[in-house]
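REVIEWER CHECKLIST
Item 1: Sequence provided? yes
Item 2: Single chain? yes
Item 3: Sequence as submitted:
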Amino acid sequence: MQGCQFFKVFDEHQLEYVLLAYGESDDVYMIGKIASFQIQNLLIAYKERFDKDNFIKNLLLDNLLLVDIYNRAKKLHIEADVRRAVYIIETNREKDGNELERVRSLFGGKSKDFVTAVDEKNIIVVKELAENEGYEDLAKTAEVIWNLFTSDLTGQEHIAYGTIVGEIKEVSRSYKEARMALDVGKIFFEEKDIIAYSQLGIGRLIYQLPIPLCKMFIKEIFDGKSPDEFDEETLTTINKFFENSLNVSETSRQLYIHRNTLVYRLDKLQKSTGLDLRVFEDAITFKIALMVVKYMKYMETLDY
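Item 4: Structure as written out by the authors:
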């Protein structure tokens, strides 16, 4: 083949110029034409993916006006009134760097789901749900995502997801819920690698308390002391008592101690704190205090 072939792309809609080899053979012309159409299709697909990815990022971060959300969604052929939920996958992405593509490969066959990243640590999945899909299906999907990383878990991986929303303008809310679930899960649900916003319970309320108010609460309840200053035996007794719904007999059985020994420990705790864990109101106060202390300690780690 004489000479060289090349074409210049002015934009994704215009691939007009194909310079043929000397002799202007029909075969060379056709090859150039086919190649130009292939490049055009690739450019269109890439730009559409880039535009959608950019739109989803701005949507999650609340960087769009309401009117812009619907206008851009329509232009990008993204349905506005469908049910969606947001997942956040926190991974050790510095390990091999291909976690984002691994998650994308899981959802890649369904273009209505979006996989992106707004920072270097977290992968975001905006999942579309059918009318008959609910929170059980969200939990199953979270398990599937988790299984992607079972071969190389480092202990730093967590998955959190928000509630189901019905409109595209509410997607950012589900994202914020997932972010809160990620943090609250680390504080109060250390044993869970997957956590849903709907499972946070009272931890969600404590997480939103200002630290000065938390310190005031602990000071009022324990006269300046901290409930985590108790010895290991006392803390084990307290936690087991809560696990068994304040049942003295079952708690003593599981601790392999006599019932009277447990009663003695509870009496001793009452003298030092003024709270009787056998009384429901006192037990609730003590439980909340333990959670508040956990929250304050977590916030201290973020300060450093």
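Item 5: Key structural point noted by reviewer: The longest strand covers residues 83-90.
Item 6: Recommendation: ____
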